[in-house]
Amino acid sequence: xxxxxxxxxxxxxxxxxxxxxxxxxxxxxxxxxxxxxxxxxxxxxxxxxxxxxxxxxxxxxxxxxxxxxxxxxxxxxxxxxxxxxxxxxxxxxxxxxxxxxxxxxxxxxxxxxxxxxxxxxxxxxxxxxxxxxxxxxxxxxxxxxxxxxxxxxxxxxxxxxxxxxxxxxxxxxxxxxxxxxxxxxxxxxxxxxxxxxxxxxxxxxxxxxxxxxxxxxxxxxxxxxxxxxxxxxxxxxxxxxxxxxxxxxxxxxxxxxxxxxxxxxxxxxxxxxxxxxxxxxxxxxxxxxxxxxxxxxxxxxxxxxxxxxxxxxxxxxxxxxxxxxxxxxxxxxxxxxxxxxxxxxxxxxxxxxxxxxxxxxxxxxxxxxxxxxxxxxxxxxxxxxxxxxxxxxxxxxxxxxxxxxxxxxxxxxxxxxxxxxxxxxxxxxxxxxxxxxxxxxxxxxxxxxxxxxxxxxxxxxxxxxxxxxxxxxxxxxxx
Length: 479
What we know:
single chain; alpha/beta; Alkaline Phosphatase, subunit A; four-stranded antiparallel sheet; 14 helices; 14 strands; 29% helix; globular
């Protein structure tokens, strides 16, 4: 049995046809989902690239390691790649891995990188070397991976990073893997993460005027925590919220997703060509979502549905296709693959076997929890009706009725919902206490004397991103 783990960067769940989007064109991903166990309530452990990927490969929340988000305690933890390599699998990492430290291979036999941060790119990863040999530059348009604006790539489709990632996967499946043993391959696309710059013709595939308006924008900004208000101001989200700008960002985001879908089609076709499709477990997910203007925000970073609600499905031999609405998250990947491979998961893995969850044999989670260090740090905890977000910076909070799938009105300041706030706080404290019992020595503590910790509000946190609004206003890219 082989394992193919496909990861997209910054792909929100509702941007795929199978999950109900009537505009996006993702026929290959939809076809794969139709053969899979699909999870409708899948959430990321953290809506940031590095911690999310640590959870995917270790089966643990990053805050369970010594030092948490800011430490290196995770570096010594066994990765899925280590476990499968020891079990005789050939292991390959293709694309954006975002390893920390960036020069580590973490147990992968084959390592072909296409990263998107300056730290990683200064080592001239494989994709950058490919472009240099052809005299090309990826970001010749002047944008980088944090700029919230749209444009068309100056590269041709065949030289664009998404196509290059597809090429690497196809080449590996055809000739890059040993044919005498099974493989574990991670195919990780850096897109649709910014810059929102699909190559032609994908930049004009979607008419901006036909795309839906952002959700969750009815609530007055004054009803949001200070952290969110300052976040919006620091990144100049109001400028990006202008309808022409927001809709063009979304149309280019969709274009990048459709290009990824084309590569998924090439990969599944190659699996069939090699006669290993039926013997290969395919697990598809993203590291986190993208706001696209929902709640007047862009990028990821937030505890809102658009940032943390992700696609996740698994095609495995003998598993009947269907959907499951139980809560699952990225820590479930390791125990699932270990179970299918017949090996033991690490003893401190936080996750559950997805297939046991799908069949009803695993205990059902009452809550889903996500966490981030961004903006001073926050936790979100939710049921299928209620979502509570707690901000460590200042101790503010939000409460939403998410029955309709979106955060509309912050009810945390409404005295009629004080009881629900207390219920969700208690649930978060209980969840954190359970996690801390299974954490490494030196892991951060977020509760004290039965209460959630907080720090006095620090308004200097957002100083480092004050230059970002300048990129939004480059006229060449807003015509």
